[in-house]
Amino acid sequence: MGDPCIICVAITGSLPRKANNPAVPISVEEQIESTQEAFEAGASIVHAHVRQEDQSPSSDPERFARLLEGLKTHCPGMIVQFSTGGRSGAGHQRGGMLPLGPDMASLSVGSNNFPSRVYENPPDLVDWLAAEMRSRKVKPEIEAFDLSHILKAISMHEAGALGPGPLYVQFVMGVKNAMPADRQVFDFYVEILRSRLPSAQWCAAGIGANQIVLNEWAISAGGHTRTGLEDNVRLDRHTLAPSNAALVRRAVALCEKYERPVADWQSARAILGLPRAA
């Protein structure tokens, strides 16, 4: 058997709406229920955004607080990771939920193009978000949309800017106008990280139809993987995913195919250097 594989479920995101797939969880209550199902299916990390009543993205700390409370109650031990992405706020608003003390938070360390806009992550904001996470003992997950982001993350880690424990980098591939799902590039990412920082842990996420492709690449290459309705609302071209849990089960099946045990929350916390849940 290979090393345990951590499965992260990105439950909601900022873009998918009920019109895209009725299973997308929008309210805090729906998010808690959907996450519990995904947790029971094998996910040990939940990557979470929150939404307004009209389904628009939000950075409201009160909504994040209610979500965190519910996840701790219904998914005990699961690693809770909040998004600091740019669609739901600007500037320091993006880190407004960090005082709540989630286990982890996403951190993009450089800018890149998205389908219709520039995803701006200026150096001063990156440094502020990293400092906030470090001071509050929130572990960053680096979201790398480009090779430069991986190299920047290694530099920040070596400078002590990302806190203790192993560096954790997620390769995001398949975003239009950013890095496509390219196997040669993926293999290069893995080799760069392994050769320059062997202690680092890595994950991969694919957007849309690329989700299952990146799931398989990551699991077969010994990394961790992300799935969920944030990134992909379908099982295939003709079939909507009935739940986040259904997408998690696809990743679990790939772990079985490649003889990788699925990491439970205890194993995931140990791999990432996180304390055991209270």
Descriptive notes:
Helix 5 (183-196) links the parallel strand 10 (168-173) and strand 11. This protein has helices at residues 28-41, 61-74, 123-135, 147-158, 183-196, 210-220, 244-257, 265-272, and strands at 7-10, 45-48, 50-51, 57-58, 79-82, 104-107, 112-113, 118-119, 139-144, 168-173, 201-206, 224-227, 234-236, 239-240. The strands form four sheets. The chain has an eight-stranded parallel barrel, surrounded by eight helices. The radius of gyration is 17 Å and the shape is globular. It has eight helices and 14 strands. It has one domain: Aldolase class I (TIM Barrel). Helix 1 (28-41) runs parallel beside helix 2 (61-74) and helix 1 runs parallel beside helix 7. By secondary structure, the chain is of the alpha/beta class.
Q: In a nutshell, what does this entry contain?
A:
The chain has helices at 28-41, 61-74, 123-135, 147-158, 183-196, 210-220, 244-257, 265-272, and strands spanning 7-10, 45-48, 50-51, 57-58, 79-82, 104-107, 112-113, 118-119, 139-144, 168-173, 201-206, 224-227, 234-236, 239-240. The protein is an alpha/beta fold and 278 residues long.
